[in-house]
Amino acid sequence: MTDPDRIWTEAAGRLRGEIGEGAFSSYIAPSAVRVDGSGQLILVTPTAYARDWVRKNALRRMNELWLGLDGLNRRLDVRCRAEMGSTPPASQVAAGRAPAHSGNVVSMPMATVAPVADGARAVRAAGLQERLTFDSFVEGQGNAFALAIARQAAAWADGHFNPIFFCGPYGYGKTHLLNAIAWEAQRLRPDAKVVYLTAERFLSTFVRAMQDRSTAAFKDSLRGADMLLIDDVQFVGGKASTQEELLSTLTALIEDGKKIVLSADKPPMALTEVEPRLRSHLASGLTCPVEPADRSLKLAVARNRIEALARLGVVSGEVRAEVLEHLVDRTPGSMRELEGAVNTLAAVAGARLSTLGLDETQALLGSALRGGPERRITVDEIQKTVAEHFTLKQADLLSERRTRSVARPRQIAMYLCKQHTTRSYPDIGRRFGGRDHTTVLHGVRKIEELMAQDDQIARDVEALTRKLRG
Ligand SMILES: Nc1ncnc2c1ncn2[C@@H]1O[C@H](COP(=O)(O)OP(=O)(O)OP(=O)(O)O)[C@@H](O)[C@H]1O
């Protein structure tokens, strides 16, 4: 056999039996095999997270299976979509159809569940926030797959995995997506009962129901749901009776073909405080990572937030690009911290926001967020900190050496100079051994690009930013 479509279908089918339905549907089913220009076979995963999982847990076995089937003795490599520079349409990712063929791309069919029953009266759950809708959610590289899946779930799509489990670090949009799904699903089916609650609320309501001896009413209220969304599932960890109740709620709803959407700060199998049987049920559908935002997504979210504040009349006009960039670069944490910084700037600058320059922004944010003017960071300090971080000498960064181990830290240092000082590209170039401004520009762009693709670079930049800020 030499046709990659057929080999992939066969190899993936065998792998499915070996790694189990949960892992298969999370990491293998949404992936596709592509043949690049040089004939190299590449398994393209939707996210960097899925790529790392496949690399660690399945690639060796996948290659064994592939080699056993392929008459051409080829090997599979694995990359994520961002590295391939293309995104298959969302409909192909979770369409619930037979294998979709697009050029030389093959994607696996998705599992299907029975369509939900209509009929129950709509119940709007407490705790939903009106502003958290698909309209206000900004798409970026780290959340495109999650957003596509969320839209499918909200549309009550038949090819819907059950449960869908969104996971990722705090503050990058899981609650936003669950809210958006709930609003949209309810809008599309006003008669359906859509129930959203946090795991903490699940826990406290259940405990109260046990004390009041009204657990039957509690069970009925959840089991009548056509769609149940539970946010921050990690908080049920450690409470045996609540976990048992959650498990029986989930199994009852899934058996009835009702939709379940969950979120947590980790993938199901990493929730070590959760009892193994519940964990395996949580992992039995689709695990969908929501990854940390890159700089361009943060900029878009900050811009969005300012527009929303302008619509509310809190600020007027637009904000200068360099002000927005400064705001994003001085807020290395999650979207939540970024929103806090935008709100703070809006509150202290008010109507003056649109006329603010960089220096004034620095001063305002410095005193508002730190209780004093922001500390100035110098080029020299950045060079020393970067050199130390990569166990180099400051002179190496200024030297002519072009080996990757020196060139990359040099580019990171240039990037940090652009972010944390007000120096121009030519000025930075002069301070890096008299380099041309185009070299600096290239270095800064390269690091921006790599931060979106390479977790290690993103972590290095974040750690250095923290060190520089003291
Ligand atoms: N892609 C996005 N577009 C617009 N706003 C976003 C986006 N991602 C996050 N936010 C905003 O950032 C804030 C934090 O997001 P959210 O509460 O959804 O995070 P989370 O992942 O659920 O965090 P936690 O695990 O702490 O509950 C929210 O105000 C949300 O609206």
UniProtKB/TrEMBL annotation:
InterPro entries: AAA+_ATPase (IPR003593), Chromosome_initiator_DnaA (IPR001957), Chromosome_initiator_DnaA-like (IPR020591), Chromosome_initiator_DnaA_CS (IPR018312), DnaA_C (IPR013159), DnaA_dom (IPR013317), DnaA_N_dom (IPR024633), DnaA_N_sf (IPR038454). One of its GO terms (molecular function) is DNA replication origin binding. Residues 378-447 form the Chromosomal replication initiator DnaA C-terminal domain. Residues 160-288 form the AAA+ ATPase domain. Gene3D superfamilies: 1.10.1750.10, 3.30.300.180, P-loop containing nucleotide triphosphate hydrolases. One of its GO terms (cellular component) is plasma membrane. The keyword Cytoplasm applies. It holds the Pfam family DnaA_N. Plays an essential role in the initiation and regulation of chromosomal replication. ATP-DnaA binds to the origin of replication (oriC) to initiate formation of the DNA replication initiation complex once per cell cycle. Binds the DnaA box (a 9 base pair repeat at the origin) and separates the double-stranded (ds)DNA. Forms a right-handed helical filament on oriC DNA; dsDNA binds to the exterior of the filament while single-stranded (ss)DNA is stabiized in the filament's interior. Oligomerizes as a right-handed, spiral filament on DNA at oriC. HAMAP family: DnaA_bact. This is Chromosomal replication initiator protein DnaA. The gene is dnaA.
